[in-house]
Amino acid sequence: MKISKEKKINDYTAFQQLFGGLDTNVRLLEEEFGVSVFTGAESLRITGEKGDVESAAEAIDALVSLSRKEPLGPQQIAAVADMVKKGGGHDVKELLAAVTVGRGKTVYPKSIGQKMYCDAIRGNSVTFGIGPAGTGKTYLAVALAVDALKNREVDKIILTRPAVEAGEKLGFLPGDLADKVDPYLRPLYDALEELMGGSENYIRNMERGLVEIAPLAYMRGRTLNRSFIILDEAQNTTKEQMKMFLTRLGEGSKMVVTGDDTQIDLPRSVQSGLTHAEGVLKDVKGVAVVRLEYCDVVRHELVSRIIRAYDRAERAERERAEESEVPSAAQNTSEEE
Length: 337
Fold this sequence. Notes:
Helix content: 40-55%
Order of helices and strands: EHHEEHHHEEHEHEHHEEHEHEH
Strand content: 15-25%
Number of helices: 12
Number of strands: 11
Largest sheet: 6 strands, parallel
């Protein structure tokens, strides 16, 4: 049964943000919930099936709250709509618990998945953040690391990642070892520089020994006390490398391991240390595993659609490969008989 519901919005700035340029945000809400939204002077009228109208109204309340903290756009609309559909619209207020980093800059989780990830990092000694590109795995981990350093919860931030070639060979790159691995560590430099309030603060902290960025191989043989340690691109570690890294954990330290298990650059015969560790450590106390999904992607909205398209294509390829193997197996059986 179709119904209409009136929503009064007293905050004019929130009202403007909710509509967006050329009413783009409202059009997205209509698409997400299958309703029609009409505007009055200070109110909205939502028309559609009862359940859809109630969900859209809940999303509008959540978006009005969120608009007081950050501008609304397609990513925020999609994230809130996804939360409401999963029954978590009331959790949007919890997303407003900011992480304050360099020079007063604030970072907010932008989805329930991201909030769960931040909570897991705060509450566990070792946290695995696994998910597709653009879900904020590394960025949020670095933000929490900067926050911990600022609050003197740790004495040092250590960022590392394996120097595994994604289609190129390190030997053909110019320069010494430091020059060769620098491009692999660049995303970590960029995140730290932004979150520490600029290159001057970042360089000063590097010179004071408060921040260290190094290839994973440099972690061997060390015990890392009172440190916030982040292993990025962990899908490209071997089982042995992952075990070596995790056993560096010292007193008062916290580890975050991030990776995307759909983008493994290891040889096919080598199992990823990330996927292996997820299975081995899933029931170990003090270790948390958080999987981020497409709805947690916070880059350009097109990134989420690109990832979905690639996943569909890969599933189709696997299914075709499995189907081609079945007749072969059946033929072998008949020949044996």
